[in-house]
Please model this.
Amino acid sequence: MKIFNLSLTIALCGFLENVSAIYVYACKNYMFTMTAVDEAIASVPHSHMHGKFAKDSRGGLGRKIKIPLHFSDEDKMGVYVILETYTNNIMDVMVHPDGEPHRGKFCRIKKIEDEEDDD
Model:
C-alpha cells in the first residue's frame, strides 16, 4: 500500500509540474504559444487546409499549410505548420524568411516555467 501511495504522489507531482509549465514554439528570436498556433490553424478556411505534402523535422510526411501568424508588421516571414494527413495533429511549425517557400527553418518546442510572484 505504501508503494502505491508513493507512486501516486510522484505521478501527481509530475502532472502538476507540467500544468505549471508553458510550452512555446521558438522560431528565431520569436516565440508562439501553442494556443496561438492552434487558434491560427482554426482560423484557416477549410478550403485552404489541403496544402502540399512536406516532410517534418523527423522525416514524417504531412501537409504543409500557411497560417496567419506574424512576428511584426515589418517582418515578412511566412509561418507554416505541417499537419498529419488524417488527424490534422501538428507535426511541426516552421518559418520561411521573406516568404521564400523553399528555405524554411523548423521551430523548436521550448518549455518556459511559470514564474510566480514572490510578493
Remarks:
- The longest helix spans residues 2-20.
- Confidence is low (pLDDT under 50) at residues 1-13.
